[in-house]
Write a structure and sequence with these properties.
The structure holds two protein chains of two kinds.
Chain A (H helix, E strand, L loop, with lengths): L1 H7 L9 E2 L2 E2 L4 H15 L5 H13 L5 H15 L5 H12 L8
Antiparallel strand pairs in A: 1-2
Chain B lengths: L15 H15 L5 H14 L3 H12 L1 H9 L1 H7 L10 E5 L4 E6 L8 H4 L4 H4 L1 H9 L1 H7 L9 E6 L5 E5 L11 H5 L4 H5 L15
The chains are: A mainly alpha, B mainly alpha.
Chain lengths: 105, 210
């Protein structure tokens, strides 16, 4: 519950993109990235500020799209915590790019 | 490189960013750090459930219970918590009351401070530079554009939120709602009513009243 508050409390340039008050996702992967970041935090995998600070920093750097910053921040916090290794992340992404793995979401 | 026995839903390779998102989700699921259902639940909750319903319940209770109303106006955080409806902590919330001769509206002139704990996520117009500057300069004109025409005798107070102090408006209970239940009353209270750019209307109201 408090988590909802923290997530909803993202403000300024880091505020979630919305239209008429509803969350706006331009593509399915954006919704997934959103859900993963919030759900991991709800599980206590990381503190919200660990993610938020990285998001704010990336948004401030003027990344082209909000959820690209979001995903980069999420990768960063998981790498920093050692939950995912850089090489396995890259190898897995390459499998999806090469269609060696089903993109089932 | 043949896709013959591959699925036919994804004949195109994903974009780089899609591939990264897919990689992350599949690794996290494999490691048991998260399930697909948990991700779905979060997305659905944020898309549908986090709305102004908590604020509306608070308003309806205040209309029905004068003592609750008093507690709400003096210590909003405690009064909201009292309802036990799972609102996040609202320690910085201040509730301001409309009356026959006074109308309140809320803005954040600096950014987009908003009582999200009771109203959900802010609408995009609330964050627009136009609303933020004009609400203070010409509140009556802004209210008119929202469809709220106030008689001259009604004073308009504009409250500028900050990260330390967030305001919510307690609107007036519409006439013709005597005997209504808390649930029925709450359904009349929109987010805009609690930002102060609208007033609750009973369904039977003609709208002709001044």
């Amino acid at each position: 519950m408090g988590v909802h508050g923290e997530v909803a409390g993202l403000e300024g340039p880091a505020a979630l993109p919305r239209k008429n008050g509803e969350l706006v996702f331009q593509a399915p992967w954006e919704g997934r990235a959103f859900g993963i970041a919030v759900a991991l935090h709800e599980r206590g995998v990381y503190r919200w500020d660990e993610f938020r600070d990285r998001l704010v920093q990336r948004v401030g750097e003027g990344s082209p799209a909000y959820y690209e910053s979001w995903l980069a921040a999420l990768e960063s916090v998981l790498l920093a915590r050692g939950l995912v290794a850089p090489d396995e992340l890259e190898a897995r992404a390459q499998e999806f790019r090469d269609l060696r793995r089903d993109a089932v979401l | 490189m043949s896709h013959d026995h591959h699925d036919d839903h994804h004949p195109e390779p994903p974009s780089d960013i899609e591939a990264r998102a897919l990689a992350l989700e599949s690794l996290l699921r494999e490691k048991g750090l998260i399930s697909a259902e948990e991700i779905d639940r979060v997305v659905e909750t944020y898309e549908r459930d986090i709305g102004p319903m908590i604020g509306a319940r608070v308003v309806a209770r205040a209309w029905l219970d004068p003592e609750y109303r008093q507690r709400l106006l003096t210590d909003a955080a405690a009064a909201v918590a009292e309802l036990g409806i799972g609102a996040p902590p609202v320690g910085d919330l201040v509730v301001i009351e409309n009356g026959p001769g006074v109308h309140n509206m809320v803005v954040c002139t600096l950014c987009s401070c908003y009582p999200w704990a009771v109203l959900g996520l802010p609408p995009s117009w609330y964050k627009s530079p136009a609303y933020r500057s004009r609400a203070v300069r010409e509140p009556r004109e802004v209210l008119r554009e929202f469809g709220l025409e106030l008689p001259e005798r009604v004073r308009v107070n504009v409250w500028d939120s900050s990260s330390d102090l967030r305001y919510m408006v307690l609107p007036e209970r519409p006439a013709g709602t005597e005997g209504w239940s808390e649930e029925e009353l709450a359904a009349l209270v929109s987010r805009d009513c609690m930002i102060g750019v609208a007033r609750p209307q009973a369904p039977a109201a003609t709208g002709a009243a001044g």
